């Protein structure tokens, strides 16, 4: 579950901070993937989780990057050595300002997290865990893609911490990411249940109001 030599020598935060310099104009989803294509799988997952956390005006970021993460995580579950995206999704344009915000806002946070991580434990960082972690990331990707109010932050953070732990072979960090994933699923379920209850209650009141009297 490691990264390539470049990721190991530069650091993941530095890779993200220099991302705009490696992208063409205009930028597509495929360009983001290709910019990290020579890095480890965990680095790619990490990079695609950041737009779920950083506000991205101009595009439905949750839908776009949630869908991308879902497709990538399925490949992780299947044991793929190199990740890819369908042409239609790869060709989708994204604001260049997104990459710039990832560099200016995402990289410093990533650097602080990275300083706390190191190879620790083997239970969650072993290769046999990749399908399980891929499944967790897939579920978080679905939550990111759904139009849940304020529903992107926790699932995106869960993917980021889990992927960073995978990249650093840090079982403790992966465990923390899984705990955040449980919290994200719980909060999302509560929001969906609350929304369903409000809709059902409103429909019931509407029917009662329109029911003929007498």
Task: State the gist of this model.
The chain has helices at about 5-10, 10-15, 30-35, 40-55, 60-75, 85-90, 95-115, 130-145, 155-170, 170-210; strands at about 25-30, 95. The chain is mainly α. The protein has one domain (about 5-210).
Describe this structure as you would to a colleague:
It is a single chain. The protein contains ten helices and two strands. It has one domain. It is 68% helix and 2% strand. With 214 residues, it is mainly alpha-helical. Helix 8 (130-145) runs antiparallel to helix 9 (153-168), helix 8 (130-145) runs parallel beside helix 10 and helix 9 (153-168) runs antiparallel to helix 10.
Q: What share of the residues lie within helices?
A: 55-70%
**Helical run tally:** 10
List how many beta strands DSSP finds. Answer: 2
Order of helices and strands: HHEHHHHEHHHH
Structural domains: how many:
1
Q: Kindly report the average pLDDT value.
A: 87
Element layout with pairings:
Layout: H1 5-10, H2 12-17, E1 27-28, H3 29-35, H4 41-53, H5 61-77, H6 87-90, E2 93-94, H7 96-115, H8 130-145, H9 153-168, H10 171-210
Antiparallel strand pairs: 1-2
Helix pairs in contact: 4-5, 4-9, 5-8, 8-9, 8-10, 9-10
Keywords summarizing the entry:
globular; mainly alpha; 214 residues; two-stranded antiparallel sheet
């Amino acid at each position: 579950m490691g990264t390539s030599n470049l990721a190991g020598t530069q650091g993941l935060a530095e890779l993200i901070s220099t991302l705009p310099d490696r992208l063409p104009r205009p930028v597509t989803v495929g360009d983001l993937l290709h910019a990290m294509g020579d890095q480890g799988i965990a680095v790619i997952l990490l990079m695609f989780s950041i737009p779920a956390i950083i506000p991205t005006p101009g595009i439905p970021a949750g839908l776009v990057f949630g869908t991308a993460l879902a497709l990538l995580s399925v490949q992780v579950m299947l044991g793929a050595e190199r990740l890819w995206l369908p042409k239609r999704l790869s060709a989708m344009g994204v604001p260049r300002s997104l990459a710039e915000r990832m560099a200016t806002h995402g990289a410093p946070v990533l650097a602080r997290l990275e300083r706390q991580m190191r190879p620790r434990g083997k239970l969650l960082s072993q290769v046999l865990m990749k399908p399980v972690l891929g499944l967790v990331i897939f579920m978080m990707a679905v939550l990111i893609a759904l139009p849940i109010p304020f529903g992107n932050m926790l699932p995106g953070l869960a993917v980021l911490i889990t992927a960073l732990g995978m990249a650093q072979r840090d079982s403790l960090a992966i465990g923390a990411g899984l705990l955040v994933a449980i919290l994200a699923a719980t909060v999302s379920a509560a929001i969906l249940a609350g929304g369903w209850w409000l809709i059902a209650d409103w429909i019931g009141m509407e029917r009662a109001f329109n029911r003929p009297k007498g």
